[in-house]
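ok so i was messing around last nite and threw this chain in just to see what happens. nothing serious, just curious
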Amino acid sequence: MQEAEVSLRIAIYHIINGLTAHDITVSIDGAHIKTKDTIHFDIWKFFEENHITKIDGRIDNYKGIYQIAGYDAKIIVTSAPGIGDVNVILNDGTNLYVESKKGKANKSGQEYSLMREAIGQLMTGCELGNGIIPVVAVPYSPKSFELADRWSGLPQMQKIGIKFYLVKENGDIVIV
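result:
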């Protein structure tokens, strides 16, 4: 699962489960979608398969405003650096600040290094204060679950409040 898909699945999950009534910002670097002639993630196919429509009229660019059929909250796709990969304002007013990473869903491999990289980005990417929940998001695998379960019990992780979102291919999320 590519990083862009992880991020978009988090946005979809929060909207369709009624966890937010606010628009969600998803920052996707163009290189996560395509480099030269190589398509890494077919974002248009993903949107079509998930009944998501571009509503801002800019059909020539993946960046813009999207809506899931039947829901009011929108997904705003940008490529702005330094804002995290996903920002969700939950119904209680807290803000999820998410750093996403790619990986092979249900298969172990690079979880250790990618999850540690995401933790580092959270620690240095924004001011983590009241009302902000830092989140590491990766595809679900037995190894990502093992690491998230172990690391979430560490006192420093608990003090900072880092959560782990393990994204399954069907869009479900295991929160540790």
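not much to say yet. The helical segments are 3-16, 30-33, 43-49, 111-125, 142-152, 155-160.
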